[in-house]
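pipeline: protein-struct stage 2 | run 1193 | Putative multidrug transporter membrane\ATP-binding components
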Amino acid sequence: MFAAGEGVLTLVDSLVMGCAVLIVMSTQISWQHTLLALLPMPLMALAIKRNGDALHERFRVAQAAFSSLNDRTQESLTSIRMIKAFGLEDRQSAQFAADAADTGAKNMRVARIDARFDPTIYIAIGAANLLAIGGGSWMVIHGSLTLGQLTSFVMYLGLMIWPMLALAWMFNIVERGSAAYGRIRTMLEEAPAVDDGTEAVPAGRGVLQVAIRDFIYPQASKPSLEQVNFTLQPGQMLGICGPTGAGKSTILALLQRHFDVTHGEIRFHDLPLPILQLDSWRARLAVVNQTPFLFSDTVANNIALGKPDATQAQIERVAQLASVHDDILRLPQGYETEVGERGVMLSGGQKQRISIARALLLEAEILILDDALSAVDGRTEHQILHNLRQWGEGGRSLSAPTACRRSPRPVKFWYCSMGILPSEAATRRWPCSPAGTATCIDISSWRPRSTRFRRRKRRPWMRSFTELWPTLKRLLAYGSPWRKPLAIAVAMMWIAAAAEVSGPLLISYFIDNMVAKHTLPLKLVAGLAVAYIGLQLLAALLHYNQSLLFNRAAVGVVQQLRSDVMDAALHQPLSEFDTQPVGQLISRVTNDTEVIRDLYVTVVATVLRSAALIGAMLVAMFSLDWRMALVAIAIFPAVLIVMIIYQRYSTPIVRRVRAWLADINDGFNEVINGMGVIQQFRQQARFGERMREASYAHYLARMQTLRLDGFLLRPLLSLFSSLVLCGLLMLFGFSAVGTIEVGVLYAFISYLGRLNEPLIELTTQQSMLQQAVVAGERVFELMDRPRQAWGADDAPLSSGRVEIDHLSFAYRGDRLVLQDITLDIPSRSLRGAGRTYGSGKSTLASLMMGLLPVNPRRDPHRWSTARIPQPQRVASGHRDGATGSRSAGGYLLRQRRAGPGHQ
């Protein structure tokens, strides 16, 4: 994404400059000479095309591996409570390290192809220079070209280096982008599970008729439902009962048109659902799923999800109907309390009842409760069902509870067994009190609710390099295991730089001592040509190998760093996940570490290579003429000033870019996880607008960096180089100090032109350096947090007795969740915590598991305590050669270490 904008800018810059140089070379000097010099270019294009095709395929595989690593990170961090409950932190960390190693291996396969691009360009440029000098010398001797024109032509050819390197880099980016876009296009072109209809749902109350002969899930071979037939009249409540896996939720999914019926049909207003517009049909539905999902927003905004313009009175009214109003008032900020990611600050029962209030606020014609009261105690469940009766006559409530007998009104109950629902004649009725009337809601105090992101306050950052050095030093320390390969790579850089700068020296000697004197001794010319070709091939070979060494070190560093960051995240106290969005953690483990990889591959490699090239060119210039060299180095103070100004203004911009990118990742993570709720409440456009806002803010921050680069770097440094060149001509070309030989002038101009590029690269690397340091700070901030503390006793437990003595606990401040709890559970006995929702049962279980800080013992305590958390999660993976999914409460429990006190 970052390279795309810079790639377009580079493409335009290189094309304009390259075309301008070619036009001048062809029209002002010699078109025949230009064609001769460009003969190696078709071969270069073929080589780049071949490498590009290989890069495309390998980058696609590497992106797939990186996607799997993201999936592993997201699954581990979103399932952190299950992982901690079963003591699987070390196991998950080891699995992540294996995935990181696989991703690194695939990235190295990409690096082997990527490293071929620059050497190919340098060999082509060297061959073009050789042809230009050889052919031009013959033309000078035969009088069709002057010595000045030959020198100018070679200088223009030197100006072609940047456009050709830029085009090769752009081709690299295009191939990478093409592979990435192919993955995106696959998703965009995926056909929806159901087709939208054309008819709007008729106004007024309608009869819902269900006649399903059978339904088979995609990719399945056996029916999940058979012979489901019922009719739901206006004002009627229907309960669907049955064992787990009987198909209750499948029926409700078909009613919502997540899938279409395989054989049979569902009708509303005597119209088949497939011909109805999806948005129009789903507007008649309000759904509460088995697993409630709340967004990291306030309680009020979560309730008002499907009706953003709801008033506070309306919100409180539906909260009272869901029996959650009093609980909300007891929260720190009442309805304005942030619930955390997935509502982590609330109990399971509170989340379910807020989800019910959210559905009731829609005042939909059909209310679907999919086991929505499973985490609610019996008394509250009875009260909620009683309130639903008072909610209004016009609604139809479809429920899939596991305990149907608690309904306080006339209900038809259907027993679903193994996907088969009998006909209406086989059902029974439970008599209850008559239905109530609808309730009016006051809308006099209407006020619109915000639909925008709750942005964090950001403070500007302007820090000096000395302030960035501690983080940079720590990042570089990760490369210590690869000191030897890096040292070899640096040595290769210096040798390659010496080989590169030797080329203009040879050409200068050839022009001044042979071409200018109109003499071309064959053996000497052949020797110079062989030396020039050998130096160019040596430089290309060294460039390729040092690039591989830097990539190998970078892959190793990122692999180790990712493993360390993930291990630190997994071993954080559970309380950290109550306030830290998982999307932010995922961004640190994957995206930030990927930026740090660029520190070694691009920043360190470029800085060292540019320093070697600058040093070698300075040595060459001083060897030619020390007075001219002193004038040439006058550019360095100006460059230093530009770098200081650039660093000052780029730091806060880079931090904003990284922060917005983390926000986008966080937003995507929440949207993907809550997509079912978003679609049920028809909020796709609203959440899409939120993501567009965040993306646009990130775009504006990126545009600031591009403006800064475009203003401070190439224009100013090019201007400084031109001023230095004018100074050389004024001092040594038209003064008593002495004239300049043509070959020496060519060498100096060539060095000045090439000196501009490493100086620009050194300055531009500050942007990437800033990004790497900011990413490093975010990573190290996570790694430096205190880990889960355990006692020193590591011995196996000898007794299953649990004793709790006057325990009090608060998540924040002095708001106690548990107060003065005393409990004694003998070995091999059963105790049940039967208090109401929100009373601290889950907190007590977390404390007993050692997941919250009350001086717990080490892992043996958790290994002797098994817990199935409220939001049950299933871990993806494979076992015994069969891929698929495994139950956390089945497979993982069998991994327990059974001891004498295990209960």
